[in-house]
Amino acid sequence: MVLKVALSAGHGYHTPGKRTPDGEREWSFNDKVTRALQERLLQYDGVQVLRLDDPTGKVDVSLTVRSNKANEWGADIYVANHHNAYQGVWGGHTGTETFTYNGAWGGKSANNPKEIELAKAVNDAIVAAYGLRNRGIKKENFHEVREPKCLAVLTEGGYMDSTIDIKVMRDDNKLRQSGTNQADAIAKLYGLKLKGSQEAKKPTPAPVSKSVDQLAQEVIKGLHGTGEARQKRLGSQYAAVQARVNQILAPNAKPAPKPAPQKTVDQLAREVIDGKHGNGDARKKSLGSQYNAVQKRVDEILTTKPKLKPNDTIAREVVQGLWGNGTDRKARLERAGYNYNTIQNLVNRMF
Fold this sequence. Notes:
By secondary structure, this protein is of the alpha/beta class. It has 15 helices and 6 strands. Helix 1 (26-41) links the parallel strand 1 and strand 2 (47-51). The chain is globular and about 70 Å long.
């Protein structure tokens, strides 16, 4: 028997609105979890994996294309990894939750015990990796749990606008551990065995408590690669570690003067929105003396009222699960400039 697992990292890198309050992209978190999940699954015998989204993040593959692709492939399991948001501003809300289909449109059962068992296994795996509050298993009419013909679950690992959860999501080790844990949970559920001697090679997260000086010594030994690979491995510590490396290798050298930026304030603001200058102190360092002017322009761009879509388009997006549910849906719709009652009436007519 071959277990066919379809994986979906939520959204794309450029999908509007899917960001932290500091501009970090949800897809970047989802992608790291999904990559680790795929890599670990392929270490088991009798598993085939199909990734449904664009692995580069450049294209936000539609939900219909994703579910159709999984159905045509004959998937046995569909796992969609997402990270949640509440109101788009920093707050103390927190937790991990996983969704199955609620049966609103018929077709699939809302109480398939195997699907609920899969959801619990995956949800527990994420909670073990992240250490956040377990919000449990929930049911919704989301496209990615409704349309796949196979067992399907959609995870919300944590809240991108939570001051608690974001600390976990900025830790690549925990994101990778989430994917690895999910794969091992699926393997246990289906009695899969690791290939050859892979049991001894089970990945473990790299230590996260090393000092800047220790990491700098590792960089000098070539343990963190070069260029973009080094930046990715070191994450938020890259600038501090690189400065320490330079200090060790050339203790008497004076830092080269930083060339005056040639880009306009508007160009730099667009780059900030695209996540090219980091956030917090890293952004200040990257922008230098232009920080205040650029940040002001960023705020102007982000607070400019967007052009509204037609109400029937938004209603269809609500049905697809793109606007959340309950009070969350109401708050998001009104914040975006839509009349909640008008949209909800349109949604009700669709059923």
